[in-house]
Amino acid sequence: MDELRYRVLRAESEYNSVKKDARVAYGIWLVLGIFGGHRFYLGDTGRSIAMLFTLGGLGLWTLADVFFVGRRVRTVNSSRRAAIMARHGIVDA
């Protein structure tokens, strides 16, 4: 039982070190949204580069992203958590 608890604590610690914060993502969107900075932060490299070279789709993608950044942060965090838990042999309920 102690080994499982130790693995869970290690996995949670690893997850806490890589999870993204919606407030930070929105802050980056506010300052660097036109260049796709928030997308770089979330690991969406392809979209980030597209936003960088088109100035956020001439601002349209940047404006639309205000509605999608929070959901994207939750999706990225959920995916990262699942991968970390699986790597440590823990099935998340």
From TrEMBL:
Membrane spanning stretches: 24-42, 48-70
Keywords recorded for this protein, A-Z: Glycoprotein, Membrane, Signal, Transmembrane, Transmembrane helix
UniProt-listed PANTHER family: BETA-AMYLOID BINDING PROTEIN-RELATED, TM2 DOMAIN-CONTAINING PROTEIN 3
InterPro entries: TM2, TM2D1-3-like
Annotated compartments: Membrane
Keyword Glycoprotein among UniProt keywords: yes
Bilayer topology: Multi-pass membrane protein
Every TM2 domain range: 20-67
Chief location of this protein within or outside the cell: membrane
Name recorded for this polypeptide: TM2 domain-containing protein
